[in-house]
Amino acid sequence: MRETVTISIPGEIKKQLDKITSQEGITRSSIIRESLRDYLFIRQFRSLRKRMIEKSPRVYTDQDIFNIVS
């Protein structure tokens, strides 16, 4: 189920967003959805990395975590 969320952004970011939508032929919503999905993935990844580092001091980098969970 989709829900609507209203956000406000600075004018310069909106200009950049509109330029990308024009260049790539996709909607603002698509770009924002993809960006938010990426952000949430990165946040989850960092949380996982933090927990793994606490349990295993030999894990230091994002690549280390990626190799373990892949």
Question: What would you note in describing this structure?
Answer:
By secondary structure, this protein is an all-alpha fold. It has one domain. It has three helices and no strands. The two termini are 30 Å apart. The model has no long low-confidence stretch (mean pLDDT 88).
Task: Give a short synopsis of this structure.
This protein has 70 residues and is mainly alpha-helical.
Number of helices: 3
Number of domains: 1
Distance between the termini: 30 Å
What characterizes the major β-sheet? Answer: none
How do the helices and strands follow one another from N- to C-terminus? HHH
Shape assignment: elongated
User: What class would the helix/strand composition place it in?
Assistant: mainly alpha
Number of strands: 0
Beta-strand level of the residues, as a percent range? under 5%
Helix residue percentage:
over 70%
* Rg, Å, rounded: 17 Å
Low-confidence stretches: none
Average residue pLDDT: 88
